[in-house]
Design a protein that fits this description.
This protein is mainly β and 169 residues long. It has helices at residues 15-23, 69-74, 88-95, and strands spanning 27-28, 30-36, 39-45, 49-53, 56-63, 77-82, 108-110, 116-118, 123-135, 138-149, 157-160, 163-166.
Length: 169
């Protein structure tokens, strides 16, 4: 059954409208990491996008009020981790304000360019930050991929309707 959009009564643009629409948009879940002055930082992102294949480039958004912003704003390199459906708790930890994101049970090690690399992810990349573009209360970070590994096992974790979900066939 299809529904025709109600063009007679659209809602005026607002933060609530944007949130309501994007709750209906299923997105892959990633964790972005960087080396900070006081240790590793990271956050859960659903805004990860492939931007270019020549050169290989990606983007993600980060709020300027995020506890990770100070480190990301000065980082030369970032880590990008694609989470599997078995990593709902990890995604929640990196999304929670004030959490000890790199404490147990989070498995990680220092990777190339000093970037924290998380264990047991579906895939990971290290990117050299190319630009940070102001966008409202966020910045869009563009990073050129320098290396990575797509060989993790499992199925992707998704974010939909305000919850982490597994992909269904």
């Amino acid at each position: 059954m299809t529904a025709t959009p109600d063009l007679a009564a659209p809602r005026t643009a607002s933060p609530d409208l944007l949130r309501a629409v994007f709750r209906r948009h299923a997105a892959g879940v990633a964790v972005i990491t960087a080396r900070g002055d006081d240790g590793p930082v990271g956050f859960t992102a659903t805004s990860l996008t492939s931007v270019s294949v020549e050169p290989p480039m990606l983007s993600f958004g980060i709020g300027t009020g995020s506890s990770s912003w100070a480190a990301i704003s000065g980082a030369e390199h970032v880590g990008v981790h694609i989470l599997g459906e078995h990593q709902q708790e990890l995604a929640a930890t990196f999304a929670r304000s004030g959490a000890d994101r790199f404490g147990a049970p989070t498995g990680w090690r220092e990777g190339p360019e000093g970037v924290p690399v998380l264990d047991d992810v579906l895939a990971w990349l290290v990117g050299r930050v190319h630009a940070r573009v102001p966008a409202g209360d966020h910045h869009i970070v563009l990073a050129e991929v320098v290396l990575g590994d797509p060989a993790g096992a499992g199925r992707p974790l998704l974010y939909h309707q305000g919850r982490f979900n597994a992909l269904r066939d």
